[in-house]
Batch of 4 targets.
Target 1
Amino acid sequence: MVRRTKEEALETRKQILQAAEKAFYERGMARTTLNDIAVLAGVTRGAIYWHFSNKADLVQAMFDTLSEPLDELASAAENEDEPDPLGCMHQLLVKLFRQIATDPKTRRINEILFHKCEFTDEMCDLRQQRVQISAECKVRIERSLRNAVKRGQLPADLDTRHASLATHAYIDGQIGQWLLLPDSQPLAENAVRVVDGLMDMLRLSPAMRNGQYV
């Protein structure tokens, strides 16, 4: 009986997240209420509050579903014992771009994040969460870059902090622009080329080196 109740709760949570994704994608975040989501999911507002403390918490839970499949590769790149951290990062980014281009759910949620997410007063908690996640992402990227430097895969004088900021901006820029103008390039087919461009910048750009700008 307890197991059945737990399974039902998980199914209800899944229904709410699916309804939220559909509503946010069609109406935008600011114009979608929790009542809209409850009606679409076929549940009560009380059921939503049972699973999520507020709208921002619900939105973040929806975004969190995207990171799970990529966590293993990201962790490998950060691992000091990983013999090929740059290869792991390359594989991770190619997979990310291809997933956005070919998986409808991943594309929809990223479109919500990049182009349908208004940080109104109601969503101030979400803004703080996104700021924190962005900062953590930069830390993880820099850790991976340092591992690549230690393995001799990147220049010994690479400014890893500056390079991590540039890498994060490059990734966000590629995703945001493609979602806005999907006909600009076949992202799934060009994923390796797009990532190779980033790797060339990290390996070869003098602007990425320590001591170049004092």
Target 2
Amino acid sequence: MLDLRIKKHRPLLVSVGIFITIFCACLYFISLSNTNFKQNQRLLLSGMARSQAAEIERNLSLSLTSTQILAHQISIDYEKVNHFESYAQTIMQSFEGISSIQLAPEGIIRYIYPLQGNESALGLDILNHPKYGEAAQLAIAERRMIVIGPVKLVQGDIAVISRTPIFTKKSNGNEQFWGFASALIMLTPLLEKTGIHQLEEEGYTIQIQRRHTDSKQTFDFYQSPTELDKNAAVEADITLPTGAWTLTLSHNITSVLHTRTLNMLFVALLLSSICSFSLYNILIRPIRLQKEVNAKTLELKELAFKDPLTGLPNRRFLNDHFPNIIKEIVANKSLGAFIYFDLDNFKSINDTIGHDVGDQMLASIADRLERNKDHDDIVLRLGGDEFAIIVPSLVSHEELKRKAEAILHNTQQSLSIRHRDFKQSTSLGITLIPDHGTQVLELMQYADVALYEAKRRGKNQYVIFDDSMHKQSVDTHNEEMALARALERDELVLHFQPQFDLSLNK
């Protein structure tokens, strides 16, 4: 039974297996594809970060050299301080992001360009300033430029201060500290020039931070409005004369990856469904053909066992199924019956009125018998006007008599065919199972004998077979056979015997 179920559902099981296999393979491919996509995106992001860091580094380095240029000019001829504004204006026009330029002879700011808005810085003693003094002393000691910041200004901007010490030569050839050349470099316009905002408009997030070389503390001085995705971020160093900044670049590919994955999942489902459905159709085709063959075979079998006029089971059905019914009756030690009957004088209806009317009468009587039979009884048409009813279960002989009387009553009911009323009677011959036999031919033969007896008694009645009818039938048959043989052998002799009526004397 289990093997039969598996065989029945094999196409579906195989198709589901193929669907799962293809879909799992597609999931593996999607995983590899997404991993490769993320790696490529990371490589692309890393290249963009390095390129952006190099651009910031280049622009910032150029701006930082402004103080070195000014310091060089003063160190050659400190009298050029008298032309400070001209030099400062030229430098600011040449370099991006410089907000102001300062000169601090002996460490005290004396010159500022532009002065407007920066008046408060005049007179500031850089060397003794608690915030800038230490860095200034270091710049003098190491004779190099220092970069202070980035620092957040009061107005909200971010800036760096480039400060270069200036040394002049004395008459004896020795150098002495003259002062500082300083520049305030605004980072916002400088970063705009590098195209950082264009990247942000394209969905990239940028963060720039400075890490203190001693304390290792970090200061984030630039952050894009969108949140940085640290899981998909790459870093690039911005190298400056006094240290390094770190540029962190990320691009939120989650939505892109989500859309990409959904599209590939849809394709995977579609591909898996098409393949499994196609395979299912290929595998199910023989089963469907077999079902069609079985259905047609069953239909032909039903047609073979069914009377085309009345729709009742026919003689072939009787020969095929009646033996099994008899065996079941015998096995259950129960009582059954076989009722055989035909319509009285039906031949005259066919001969006088027509076969089409006769066929309608047969169909109507068959329908009436089928509708009024008991549930387990089987009504058959054996051919012509011959019918039979198999009764597989009887409680008593009285029940059989009731059934027989019901058949007579139902058959006698008036029939209206083509606006004409007909009344038909029938005669029944009945045999009992197993009392009168357990073989089909035997039961049919005895039922036919009982039917003949019913017609002999005047028709429109039922007769239950008994052994005396069989003996009488045998005797009649023997007499008929003896007469037939006598005729063949010319054994009959004709004698003349006159008859007289004594009362009339004739």
Target 3
Amino acid sequence: EDESRIIGGKPCSINQRPFQVALIKRGQILCGGSLVGAQWVLTAAHCKQPVRVLIGTDTLREGTGELRSISRLQVHPSYNPRKNDNDFMLLKLNRPVHFSSNIKKIRLATRCPTDGMRCSVSGWGTTKSPGAKLPQNLQCAAIQAFGRNECTRAYGNAITPNMFCAGVPEGGIDSCQGDSGGPLVCDGVLQGVVSWGMAVCGRRGHPGVSSNICRAVPWIRRTI
């Protein structure tokens, strides 16, 4: 299992995902994230490293988008790094963003995902697995949420109620290394935060695992 955790996706523009941000460490992509307020980004707790946040761009080239530093970092109080449980972290930006056509916040899901729900995932993570090929341009992929049974069949008791699985039944489309912390969107709301999966992404019967936003909404609202 690989913790850092888009295979089979295609390039997409920031206008389609104006809430998508990149967490940058020493000029390299570390993780993805989502704008959930003018001054707040939601990402995965296992992405906790000194990073800056790149906002409002679909390309990682120098001089695009807005780069912000972080003034506060809040990990979910029940985060368990051994189990990747409650893999959530909120980052407070040093100053608020101005919303525009390519910078928008996304609403949080209040209902939990259902089996077969149509979703999409995005990020700048590797597009090749095994191996690594990091794209310059944001990649998006259409996937679906899987029910608890299918998820447990793949990963057994590693799956807690604070997680859900998403992918495609035949495999070949998945989040992968570098997409961690990024948005999993269903019906226009933020349903999941990309969390973990197999070291080889996109394997049939082993969908990607996301942290379940519906379970974290009270904590997120209290914090921001």
Target 4
Amino acid sequence: MSRIENVKRVAIVGGGASGLVALKALLEQGVFDEVVLFERREDVGGVWFFDPKVASEEARRYAQDASTRYPVVLDDGSAPKYPSPAYEGMIGNIAHELISISGRPFDKPLSTGPVQEGEREESDLFPSLDSTIAYLRAFADAYSLHNHIKLDTEVVSTRFVDGKWKVMTKNLLNGEETSSTYDAVVYAAGLWDRRHLPAIAGIDSLPKERLLHARFYRSPTIFAGKRILILGNGNSANDIASHAAPVALEPVYRSIRHPSYYSYVPDAKIHDVKPVRQFSLDPASGKVIAELGDDTVIRDIDLVVAATGYRYDVPSLRVPSRDGSAQDEPITPPDGHRMLGLYRHIFHARFPTLAFIGYSIAWSPFANSEAQASVVARAWAGRIDVPSVEEMIKDEEDSVKEVGDHNLFHVLALYKKREYGYGNELREWALQGGVEGTVGVHWDERRIWLLQNVVRLKTLQLQRERGLIT
């Protein structure tokens, strides 16, 4: 075990929940000369940030040219826009109590009257998009975090040079680039940019107007009067299918490999079908033909929606190579199935002044990020020990042996300790540096019960919303 010393200047990449809790935790230590957070959007919120104006313009341009994607440049002279994966009517899959950051309970929504046509009522347990972004903004305001945040600023590159981190940023308002040096860097930008497409024959040949990744879904209006095939049965696939069903041609097809592990209520307008074996185009109509694994053929598909997840990608970051060559290397393998070289999904084993917060997959993501941030802040403040490089490398090797080297490597539920054991372990580690400041939530019996029952509770809520139960 050893102590990390002489960390005075810290940069954080990403202004979502993970970046905000990291900023708060680092500032609480009171020993750093500078802590600055860079966010490329015009406000905090990360994956929960949603701008209806940008979404509308994004949809308009997509209708004109399906190859138009990223970023969205408006005609008002504002900075380029980087829409998050958020969409209209999005309801969280995590209960308020689980998503709350310690010391800042998530207020339950108050009923303001009957739900208007086209709107969705927010449940007592699960927060809406609007209430979640409001919660994160209030969190930033409560701790005066905006004094340390640079919005409309993109991190272009991060490199390890002469024992420090050289960070190049770009002001998206005027295009000006700035290079600064930091003793330590937190990446908290998540994994919501690199879309994953399944290895289905013909999928790469589908024209862009026939294939939409869930990353770019914003509103069900895109489905009106169309025949839709959705790939996947995770949270996004289930949600998008329920949005499409009232407006698309019946039925909406959902191609699945197995029953959903997530909250889902059967709908007569949604038909589950076998996995797609091959895609092709009808030469006459230009529409999609899907051949399924059971030899069924679905024709005249207007739009295929790939709700098939994401892969890890940190394009701005390179670290010195493991073999000592002059060529820096990325932090992810070419296929992006996981992050490489991390201890407990947080510290880079060879360069522990580089940390990643919020990249592990958790049912309680804000609390998970807070626990990780509490350890990082105390370690860089020199208040707790960290394992040696050799110990951290071995820990990652042991993790690969435990769960395998695949795209679920960072899913905490697959580990013996589970999410709650992991969280409590990080909390105990942080407490070795004192009780002052962020230490993360304690996973008690009630919190564990909520975690174990969150899918059932969300399913019950969906059934109530649709009048299936009272």
